[in-house]
Structure formats: C-alpha cells, structure tokens
Structure to design on (288 residues):
C-alpha cells in the first residue's frame, strides 16, 4: 500500500492480486488528438502528453479496454470504478468497454461534471462538461451519502410548495406529488445528496494555489467527493493514470490506502513532492 509505481499500468496491474482494491479512479487520455504543453522540458514527458492515436478510435478503445479489464479483475466484489472522460470518446467507452466488462446493469451513474473555466468557441456551444462513469463490480457497493451532502438552498422556490418553519424552529419546504396528493417535507437545514450533474465544483483556475502546472490536473474537491462517497477509511484507492497525483494526495489526506501508477518519471516525482508537501512531517512511508 501507499506506493507510487513507475511503468506501463497494464503490465503493473497484471502483478496485482485479484479482488484487492476497493475503489479505482482513472483519468486516461481523452482521445483528444492533441499534444499537451511540455511542463518540465523532459523528452519522456513530451511523449506522455501526446494524446494522438494513429489507428483512430478502434486503436484507442482496444488500448483502454485491456487495461480496464485488468482493473475489473483487481477490484473487490464490493468495489467500484469511476472512469473520467469527455465528449471525444464517452459513448465508445461506455458501450464498448464498461458495459462489456462490468455489464450495463452495473452502471450506477453517468455523472456530468460541469465547469465554466477556459476558452469559449464562436462556432458551437462551449464544451464545459466531462463525464464520470461510475460502475460497481458486484450487486453491493459503498455509498456514503452523508459524507458528501451539500446544503440545500434555504428558501428556494425551485421545488414549489409551501415554505415554512416547524414547531422546533426548523425551516422546511413541502412538495406535493400531483398524481397522489402525497406531500414530502424537506428540511432546509439538512444536507442533500448531490444530483448526477455537478455544478458546484469548478475546474482549476489560472493562479490557483492548487495548480501545479500539470495540463490535465483535476481539482481536489472533485476527487474528495468521489473518494468520500465510494470508499471508507482504510480502504485501498487506485489511480492507474496518476498524472499530477491529485487522487493519491486526497486519498492520503482522507486516511485511505493508495496506489498510483504512471509511465512518466516526472509524474512520479511531482506526486512524491506533492505528498511530502501535504504533510509537514511525513509519518506514513511510501515507496517509489
């Protein structure tokens, strides 16, 4: 546990025991057919940020599918996976990889992560959402609803119905189902479970203290919600496309065990430095 592993994730995953991981988050190349900026000027890093596929979508899907198959093998029967992608290949990934390997009935959510930072196009609507496919391996999985509750909009009229205060001084909003006449009461001082569209977590803005210069870096708040909802303290979280190390940094802070894999030397170095900076005294050892 708590290891940063350098190499091809396919070959490394083959060495893992089956049924040994509780949660997997992966943010693989998006089939964007673009080259990302070089950060550290290292030739190996240039290669790791080339998201181009000579063989087209078939080559990309075949490459990713054999890796996801190994991830399915190493997941515990109660484990689950979040695969992060966008419009370039999301339909192919769901139909030809996740539904084939996990089964369409194991899809728990197709979450839209919506944000508004970045450039805008004058030729089409701004593409400002990614998709998080959440699949379970088996019929039981971890979902800590209370850990990820968000505040309700006190006094909101979005649900319609009566807004008031009960005898205990708690604000509420009633909503009536028209067909049955049944009334549901929502207490506005209670957190609610987020819907499957997340608009309250933005992408990392330029100048943010969180930004480390990694071009595909995701915000810690996003990984925090995923890890809190789908794992418990002491569980093992795996990120096979480590990148800038956000997953392992958040997992470590939330007292999860973690494993990060990347073929880039610089990704491993950056993640190691990030973990060390996160703690003034690094008390839990990890192995590079």
């Amino acid at each position: 546990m708590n290891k940063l592993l350098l190499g091809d994730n396919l070959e490394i995953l083959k060495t893992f025991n089956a049924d040994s991981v509780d949660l997997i988050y992966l943010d693989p190349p998006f089939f964007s057919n673009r080259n990302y900026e070089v950060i550290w000027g290292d030739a190996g890093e240039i290669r790791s940020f080339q998201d181009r596929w000579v063989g087209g979508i078939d080559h990309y899907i075949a490459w990713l599918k054999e890796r996801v198959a190994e991830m399915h093998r190493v997941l515990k029967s109660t484990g689950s996976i979040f695969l992060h992608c966008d419009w370039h290949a999301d339909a192919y990934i769901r139909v030809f990889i996740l539904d084939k390997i996990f089964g369409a009935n194991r899809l728990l959510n197709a979450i839209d992560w919506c944000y508004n930072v970045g450039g805008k196009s004058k030729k089409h609507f701004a593409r400002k959402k990614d998709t998080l496919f959440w699949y379970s391996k088996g019929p039981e999985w971890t979902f800590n609803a209370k850990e990820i509750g968000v505040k309700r909009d006190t006094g909101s009229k979005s649900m319609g119905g009566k807004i008031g205060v009960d005898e205990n001084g708690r604000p509420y909003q009633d909503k009536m189902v028209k067909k049955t006449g049944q009334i549901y009461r929502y207490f506005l001082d209670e957190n609610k479970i987020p819907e499957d569209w997340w608009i309250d977590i933005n992408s990392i803005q330029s100048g943010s203290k969180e930004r480390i210069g990694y071009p595909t870096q995701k915000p810690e708040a996003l990984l925090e919600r995923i890890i809190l909802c789908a794992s418990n303290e002491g569980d093992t979280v795996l990120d096979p496309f480590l990148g800038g190390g956000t997953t392992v940094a958040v997992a470590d802070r939330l007292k999860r065990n973690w494993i990060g894999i990347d073929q880039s030397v610089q990704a491993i170095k950056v993640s190691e430095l990030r973990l060390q900076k996160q703690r003034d005294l690094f008390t839990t050892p990890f192995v590079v």
Q: What stands out?
A: The chain has two domains: 3-148+193-278, 150-192. The CA atoms of residues 137 and 260 lie 20 Å apart.
